[in-house]
Amino acid sequence: MSTQQPDIFINGKAQIFEMLRFMDPLHRKTLLKNIQIRNPRLANEFIAHCITFETFLNLSDGDISTVIHTLPSSIIGMALKNTTNNNQKKILELMNRKSAEEAFEIMTQNISNEKSNSIKAQNKVVNTMINLYQTKVISIFSN
Fold first, then answer.
1. How many separate domains does the chain show?
2. What is the pTM assigned to this prediction?
3. Which of 7, 34, 52, 73 gives a 20 to 30 Å CA spacing to 127?
4. Whether residues 42 and 77 fall in one domain
């Protein structure tokens, strides 16, 4: 009588998603470049999964400017609401004066459901970054 071992399912994508979360930027970039060579669609899926609002804050000034100029200043202001003063200052300095004033006004207002609205605004920034990356307008992991 032979015993049959149960099938084991290994979700390779989930494992790579998890690895990418913990990798330092240089190793993450190398891994993604290697995947890009063999399977660009899969690499884009991994890259989109890795992008967070923190990624936005770490983009080059030129890429940040590209992102913020494609979004309403109210979204930028709401997204910056719960970030550090240094990050707020960095982003506002990259905006034109009128847009920066509008964003700052949103940042300083008391808004109901502030935390959830800020997260929604940050997600809009992230989705914009993903679209701009996929159309090769910005570079996400250039560091």
1. 2
2. 0.79
3. 34
4. no
Query: Residue 129: which of 141, 119, 112 has the closest Cα?
Result: 141
Domain that holds residue 74: 53-143
Structure tokens at 135: 């159309």
Helical pair 12-22 and 40-50, crossing angle rounded to 10 deg: 50
- Is residue 73 helix, strand or coil? helix
pLDDT tens for the chain, residues 1 to 143? 555 656 555 567 888 888 887 888 788 888 888 888 998 888 888 888 888 899 899 999 999 999 999 999 999 999 999 899 999 999 999 999 999 999 999 999 998 899 999 999 999 999 999 999 888 899 876 54
Tokens of 70: 């494609």
